[in-house]
Amino acid sequence: MNKGLKTALATIVLAQFLKIPIKQLETGRWDWRLFFETGGMPSSHSAGVSALATFIALEREMRTIDFALAALFGLIVMYDAQGVRRQAGELALRLNELAEEVKKLEDDPQQAVYKKRQQQLRARLGHEPIEVVGGALLGIATGAVSH
Which residues form a coiled coil (predicted)? Predict the structure, then answer.
């Protein structure tokens, strides 16, 4: 495996791990499940693509097609993380709230329709812009250190 790929993958793992203590500072409790979840600070997707693009820029310079591909791929990933995936997460939140309201309005919440729905939709799919920026900065730092 080449060093650029190793750098990007290690940065993704680091970003996923960092979500745990950052969330602990916010909530006061440790949640190790965050390592396997999407969303949160920092964005591991942004960190990984930024680390790869930074490594390539330092290794081969910014005028190469390698860097152009990595940078364009990275911009698309970061746009998607804070755009489409974030909107899908917000929609999931609204649907979960609507389901709770329907339960409250029903006389008999034990109807078959509620038995089919055993878990709520995942609402943490995307990122706030600050989470994307945090991931990008982490990626730039790890890409530079790796080089």
Answer: 81-108
